[in-house]
Amino acid sequence: MSKLPQFYFCGKPATQLVPDGDYINGILETMRCHNGSLPLWPLHRSRLIRSCVVSGVILSEIDSCIAQLAPKCSQSAAIARLRVGFLDGDECWDLSFLPLLQAPEVELGVHLYPCRTNLPVLKTKNLGCKFLARSRYNAARAELPEGKRLDGLMFDSSGRVIESLRCNLLARFGDTWVTPDLSRCGVQGVMLNWLSGHTRWQTRDMDLQALCKADEVILCNSVRGVLPVVEIIGYKSWPIGAGARRLQQLIVEALW
What are the backbone dihedrals phi and psi of residue 121, each rounded to the nearest 5 degrees, phi first? Predict the structure, then answer.
């Protein structure tokens, strides 16, 4: 497999951006580039607008950059990583294309570890954006035990299930899919948004005990699509369900 080149374009030289650092009020969008395009870019773009961080001028620059660079991506599937924020008081952004490595959890499932680090309940309406300042997620990630196909299960400060470290969550109870209420905290994911137009679910609060009563649990994000959950470590395990496979096939047929 040939090495995937990285492309950068930003308002300031990319060398001035601290690798994996935080912007002030910085926004992160992690997207899938597939066969030379970003199929979910319109939904990522809408979330950027919702953040109120990105100006119309910068958004137009990003649109042009994606149109120019995505077709040059040398692999059929890659990760497009967009950061938007401020350096020295000036708005800037950068875009990089990185290899998308195979993820065995797509077929074999994910083991969720309940994290002690929680997400604070916001006093204002949660915009659901993915911010570069991710100290709580980093602290929760540090709790994970050694092992493969692990992700952290995140709760809010009142013990309600919110999401995983990398994904949104859906649980099936009989014929009904349920997703946590993200109005207080958490990331309102682009793949979750896309799936809302192709399947029905309810939004309601769940604690860990309620989640363990589900017949099937899945995770979703805009890079990997749908990942089955096979275990909440120390609490419950599931076989990979037909619902997960059905949604995975839907994404393959409609997106990639």
Answer: -80, 125
